[in-house]
Amino acid sequence: MDIELAKTFLAIMRSGTFIEASNRLNVTQTTITARIKTLESNLDCQLFIRNRAGAKLTKEGEVFASYANSLVQTWEQAKAHLTLPKGKVDAIRIGTESSLWNPLLLDWITAVNYNAPEIHISTEVTEVEQLIDLLDKNKLDIILLHQPCYYSGFTVEQIVEEKLIHVQVSEKQTPDLFIDWGNEFRRDYDAALPNKRQASLSFNLGPLALKFMLKNGGNGYFRTRVIADHIASGKLQKVKGSPEFSYPIYITYRTEKSSATLEKTLTCLKQSLALNTQWQV
Fold first, then answer.
1. What is the residue-wise DSSP string for 91-146?
2. How far is the C-alpha of 224 from the C-alpha of 187, rounded, in Å?
């Protein structure tokens, strides 16, 4: 069977409409409709009931869903295994947003490389929307994010309860720095401190902002694990009376992709988090 037919079926099932499936697969709605007609003809049954609300699986469609998942997963595994480097027996594809690669992703892949050298690792650092799209299209196995994405077929786990706290350089408290930690942080920040966004300097990369502040002085919001050593040494101090913001970290992976390799990779992540409670960036 043409694997694209199974992928199209799954895209409709997960998105709920033929239109959204065509957007996800970057093909026309006519192509989507033709593929499903071909698939239904091959299987000799109707897979979807279409109405104004979208597309709903028939009983036959519900039965076929697990087979379609297996077909696509087996195909992707076969492609990955055929291109594995010598000495590797399996592969894992990890994605993260830019604020998490250093040091979290770095520590994680270091742990996998040391504890499970038979696993080939590939990584992707990009925007959140792109990561979710790549996971949805089965081009990533697991992603690391600050915001949970509760999509159909995704498993979400919180792995770190992190906070953003207001700190300043002990010897020079200015200038004011605004670090953009994402949509949720901006919303909470504006609600708590509506007149504070107009800072002297703005950054969208936390490590850069921290290095600038340590070198030149100033104040801003940073992750507790990153600045713990600097507070302990006296280089930085907490700004009294400032609100703190929750900034947890989540892992997301496709529920049907659970495997021994995935579990081994997740164990390495949890071990690296336990060993590295204070992050160096």
1. EEEEEE-GGGIIIIIHHHHHHHHHH-TTEEEEEEE--HHHHHHHHHTTS-SEEEES
2. 20
What CATH code would you report for 90-160+248-275? 3.40.190.10
pLDDT higher than threshold 80 for residue 194: no
Instruction: Give 277's pLDDT tier (boundaries 50, 70, 90).
Output: low
pLDDT score of 278: 64
Q: Which residues pair with 237 in a beta bridge?
A: 168
Q: Residue ranges of the domains in the chain?
A: 3-82, 90-160+248-275, 163-246
Tokens, residue 119: 């696993």
Distance from chain centroid for Cα 239 = 31
Look up residue 84 and give its two tokens. Answer: 């594995």
- C-alpha span between 8 and 3 (Å, rounded): 9
Cβ contact 189:198 at 8 Å: no
Q: What is the pTM of this model?
A: 0.69
90-160+248-275 and 163-246 in the same fold: yes
